[in-house]
Structure formats: structure tokens, C-alpha cells
Design goal:
By secondary structure, the chain is an alpha+beta fold. The chain has helices at 3-16, 20-25, 36-39, 70-77, 97-103, 235-242, 254-258, 267-272, 295-307, 342-345, 373-378, 399-411; strands spanning 118-120, 125-126, 131-134, 145-151, 158-159, 173-180, 183-194, 197-205, 212-215, 218-225, 228-232, 263-264, 276-277. It binds heme C (HEC).
């Protein structure tokens, strides 16, 4: 046994009284004792991601026990078989995974442990095929922490013919896991089952994070973020956003992985590993200046938070009829000035189309965030009303990016 294995097992021994099984499934790494946030950076949790962490080492536990209170572990261990003197892993799913997979109409099982991301839910061990990534500009989810992984079918490449709309190979799974106050709440999956078919699901975790089962949406009044109840989306809510992209995927894209801030399996890594067909010439993108010196952050955020899902020119996108398109084009992100980009052409000094907000008002009034309807809508949260943007999935404003947008508009020369 090498030193790394000994160290890793010693830590597990203390916690679990035995590392027999762990040796076979856990790649021993010096970082195995670090906390979850360091081992797999959580970019949107508000903290700085740890660039030195071996982000894509998916075989590691996603947390090494440090945020797991000892008493929760003891309680949980009582639930499981302990045949060989140690924890033998999660209790057997009932019905077993093969039955769950066979019975599921859409191919997604009831229990997360059967779905492909985790090899051991109890110990938080991930499939070695799961690759960590983080998009440059995540969707604001009221401050909850998120981690993402992709599982690509072996030997297959992503069709990158259309740089703005990659087509994933059949068999791809993408995962996004949400945490509130450091605890897992739900884990979402998108799975491509045929050329023209994606299935999706979300799995809600139990309180001690030892099990997660399929959910069809709920309001979790036991999970609060700044006084608001955590909402697990329904399937139709998933579709409202993901239906706006040709191949369903919103944040695993040339732009999300090519701009500064992307992590893990970035555009550069994808090209290095020959996973894109054809490989793009540029592997690092940049949003050029529009003369304000403030445009890049604002436009990057608007692209991912408003553009990719709803405000784009795909006829299935929820906000297609508004004619307000906020997506960026990968081919334009070579540092050229951004003045001609849609995010400006479509907004600055452009009248609102919708009577709801008054057609005499403008989307963006240069120099005046207060008079700019776009800014006012992203600055508003009023429950279920449609008078906020986005209209769903957010009850709290994104304070940092709101500031970026305000400063951007304020810096535009007034006419
Ligand atoms: C308010 C819009 C919205 C809703 C509702 C929503 N998503 Fe997403 N989702 C996004 C955006 C935008 C991204 C990309 C940015 C990110 O990951 O932060 C994303 C990312 C993902 C990813 C990672 C792959 C990707 O597309 O980038 C998965 C998996 C996912 N969502 C699944 C789901 C499932 C399943 C549901 C419903 C239970 C759901 N989402 C509901 C907007 C939404």
C-alpha cells in the first residue's frame, strides 16, 4: 500500500471503521481529506473557487466527511448492513437498480444511486466517468451552491459544427447538484437517450444526505434561503428553460466553457482531449469592450441568465416573441468591440414591445439604470408575479450581477 492509500484509509478508518471496500473504489489522493468545497470547487457558492483543486477527479468522494457531523454519521451507519466490520455502502435499492431501470418509462430510475452519477451515495463516491465542470457564468439560483458533471459516452465526440449549438452524443448525461448551507438538496440530470430525445429528472436528498429519490417538484419549507422556501422545480419548469436550446443543454457550451472563469472540463481541455468535432481554432474566448469597460461581466451574465434559456432566436424559447435576444455568438468573442452585439443592439434605446411594461419605455436608457426596464425587472422580486425577471426559479435578486448591470448601464454615454 502506498502512503496515499494508507493516509486515505486511515481517515476512513476513523470514520467508518474499515477501508476494505474503499480501497477498491476510491482513488487515493492527497486531497481526499480536504473539504468538499476545496475538492470540487463550488463556483456559485459565492466563494472563490480553488484553482489548484483536482477538479475533475471524479472518483474522489465529493466530500470527504469534513462537513458531516459525527452524530449524523453514526445515525446513518445504523441504517446499513455492516457484514464485514465496516460500512458496506448504501442499503440496497428496492426494487433493485436493474428493475428500476427497466420499469422506468423514460429510463430514469426512482433512486439516485441507480442513475449513474454516484457509485456510492452514502460515501458520496462518484462514477469515475463523471467529469467536473463549471460554466464561466452560472445561472443565479438564489445563492445556492452548485456543482456539475458530465458523463460522455466512451469514444464519442461532441458535434461542434454549429459553435453556438453543440450537439451531444446519444448516451450523454449532465448533472447539476444543489446545496443549501452546505447540504445537498437536489441533484438534477439531463440524459440523451436518442438523437431527438432527452429525458430529465431531479432527485431530492434526505436530511442526512444518505439517500436521494426522484421528485416531481416541491416546496421545501425545511430548506430556507434568506427567509425564502427552497423550490424544487417541476418537470414543466425544467422544460420552460431547457426547451429554449436546440439540444437542451444550457451551460455546457462553447461560450460557457471558453470564457475566463470556466473550470474543470473547459473548452481548452475538451480540445486537448479531442472531444470536439470539429475542434474550434480558438479555445479561449473573450467578450470585447463596448467603450464602457463594464460590458463583459454584464453581457456574460445576461447571456447565461436570460439568453440561453428564454431570450434567444430559437422559436421554442419562452421569450422568442419578445424579440429581445441576449445571447452572445461564439464567433464574435475574439476580443472585437462588442458594440454591435445583440445584447446592445436589442436593448440600448430600444422601445419595449410589451404593453405590460409600457411601450413608451425603453429596455435600456443609456446612463440611467432607473429608467431602464431591463434593469428594473432584474432588480425586482415579487413572488409569483410576472413583473420580475426571470419570472420563475428565483425569489432573491443576484446582488453582485445586478451591480454589474447597473454600473454598465450607468457608464453608457447618455444621448
Ligand atoms: C430558470 C430556468 C431553469 C430551470 C427552471 C431549470 N434549469 Fe437547468 N439550467 C438552467 C441554466 C441556465 C443552466 C446552465 C447554467 C448553470 O448550470 O448554472 C442549467 C443547467 C442544468 C444542467 C447542467 C447541464 C446544462 O444544461 O447546462 C442540468 C443537468 C439541468 N440544468 C437540469 C435541470 C432539470 C432536470 C430541471 C428541472 C427539474 C432544471 N434544470 C430546471 C436553467 C434552468
Amino acid at each position: 500500500m502506498n502512503t496515499k492509500v494508507v493516509l486515505s484509509c486511515a481517515a476512513l478508518l476513523l470514520l467508518l471503521a474499515g477501508c476494505q471496500r474503499a480501497r477498491t473504489i476510491q482513488k487515493a489522493e492527497p486531497d481526499a481529506g480536504r473539504d468538499a468545497d476545496a475538492a470540487v470547487p463550488m463556483q456559485d457558492a459565492g466563494g472563490e473557487p480553488d484553482a489548484t483543486a483536482p477538479a475533475e477527479d471524479a472518483a474522489m468522494p465529493t466530500d470527504a466527511g469534513s462537513d458531516e457531523p459525527a452524530d449524523a454519521m453514526a445515525d446513518a451507519s445504523d441504517m446499513f448492513d455492516d457484514e464485514d466490520g465496516g460500512i458496506t455502502g448504501p442499503r440496497d435499492p428496492d426494487p433493485p437498480c436493474d428493475v428500476q431501470l427497466e420499469e422506468a418509462l423514460d429510463g430514469l430510475p426512482d433512486d439516485l444511486i441507480c442513475a449513474g452519477l454516484y457509485t456510492d451515495v452514502w460515501r458520496k463516491l462518484l462514477s469515475p466517468d463523471a467529469r467536473f465542470y463549471a460554466p464561466a457564468y452560472p445561472l443565479w439560483s438564489d445563492g445556492s451552491g452548485k456543482q456539475r458533471w458530465v458523463i460522455l459516452p466512451k469514444g464519442e465526440k461532441i458535434d461542434a459544427t454549429d459553435q453556438a449549438a453543440w450537439v451531444m452524443p446519444v448516451g450523454t448525461q449532465l448533472w447539476k447538484e444543489f446545496r443549501v448551507n452546505g447540504r445537498r438538496v437536489e441533484t438534477r440530470v439531463l440524459q440523451k437517450t436518442r438523437e431527438d430525445r432527452w429525458v430529465r429528472a431531479t432527485y431530492e436528498w434526505n436530511r442526512d444526505e444518505t439517500w436521494a429519490v426522484r421528485s416531481f417538484g416541491s416546496d421545501r419549507d425545511d430548506v430556507m434561503i434568506s427567509g425564502t422556501v427552497y423550490h424544487v422545480p417541476t418537470g414543466s419548469e425544467c422544460d420552460q428553460c431547457h426547451g429554449g436550446a436546440k439540444d437542451r443543454v444550457l451551460g455546457f457550451s462553447m461560450i460557457a466553457l471558453g470564457l475566463p472563469g470556466a473550470e474543470g472540463l473547459t473548452l481548452e481541455k475538451l480540445v486537448e482531449e479531442d472531444l470536439l468535432d470539429p475542434a474550434p481554432v480558438r479555445t479561449s474566448l473573450v467578450i470585447g469592450d463596448d467603450g464602457t469597460d463594464k460590458g463583459a461581466e454584464a453581457m456574460g451574465w445576461l447571456h447565461h441568465n436570460c439568453g440561453v434559456s428564454c431570450h434567444n432566436s430559437d422559436q421554442n424559447a419562452e421569450a422568442y416573441s419578445t424579440d429581445l435576444f441576449l445571447t452572445l455568438r461564439p464567433t464574435e468573442l475574439d476580443g472585437r468591440p462588442s458594440n454591435q452585439f445583440d445584447a446592445l443592439q436589442n436593448t440600448v434605446n430600444v422601445d419595449m414591445l410589451s404593453e405590460r411594461w409600457g411601450t413608451d419605455r425603453k429596455r435600456i436608457v443609456p446612463g440611467s439604470p432607473e429608467q431602464s426596464v431591463l434593469y428594473q425587472l432584474i432588480a425586482t422580486r415579487i413572488g409569483d408575479s410576472k413583473e420580475q425577471m426571470p419570472p420563475i426559479a428565483s425569489q432573491l435578486v443576484d446582488p453582485i450581477n445586478l451591480t454589474h448591470v447597473r454600473e454598465w448601464i450607468a457608464a453608457m454615454p447618455a444621448e
